[in-house]
Protein 1
Amino acid sequence: MKNYIFRMMDDREAKQIANWQYEAPYSFYNFKNDVEDLNELLDSSLRGNSYFSVYDQTEELIGFFCFYQKENAIEIGLGLRPNYTGMGLGLEFLNAGLRFAISHFDSPEEIILAVATFNKRAIQLYERVGFIITGTEIIATNGAEYEFYRMSKKIIS
């Protein structure tokens, strides 16, 4: 198991992540495609205490997580550096983020997330760690409206 290091995201890291470019069809997740998400990432007052940069044991920035407390749940967002996607690293990276969320926040009962319905690779990963699809919703992003699955994972104390 890799030792991932979570740090509160700073402006330098945010700028670096904002420039990450994923290949199609995952280019959907490029920050430049959604002005609102990009603004939140780049503005420290909007990022607040929600965004964390993730480093590996060699001190390389490999991804990020954002965490939002919603009553007894934590909603997460995440991104793995583009050159690390599709290499089998997602499970370990996701599990590190889940452990961090559980230890960092006050007794969450569940972790929730939204994922574009076309993103079969991510959906399979989330299901592999115990997330279930709880519904669908249409989300305005990237200049249009897209269908997303809402997924949830109960936390067992």
Note: Residues 110 and 154 are 4 Å apart (CA to CA).
Protein 2
Amino acid sequence: MSFMWAIFTALIAVGLLALVFGAILGFASIRFKVEGDPLVEQIDELLPQTQCGQCGYPGCKPYAQAIADGDDINKCPPGGDATIKRLADLMGVEATSLDAAHGSEDIKKVAFIREDECIGCTKCIQACPVDAILGAAKQMHTVITDECTGCDLCVDPCPVDCIDMIPTQTTPSSWRWNIESIPVKQVS
């Protein structure tokens, strides 16, 4: 009976500790919340969120911060001219053409792994910035097409060249409004 009482007491003690520490963490998250720059958030919303790094930054959020700090707005090939125009409207600067040093605008594509040729090396999984590739070591891999941003970063690391970038087809569920027709609200 004393053994059961000891287990019960230990469970109550752990539960109370979890409750106290949870309350402390909840208070700290509210009290010490870091406010973000609203301009960076607006710029980040306009970027395509491919996280491809073609702009020279590790993702869209760091590039948004760089734009807010004065970097050029024409370094995003996945966003293309439409994104450059939207960024120019938001920032109140003149729209320029895409900087060729960072690539060229292309049609939307997604990765496709020829699974019968995949050797399961996991190099494509490590290269994918948005975790759109599923698989395990020495097992075939596959791409979650709804998550794939078409950044093309998984193709080069593949040692057996079994990844193709295929154009996506516009369907009623994947169709999006023309980004140029949506007005931009400037930050004051």
Note: The mean pLDDT is 87.
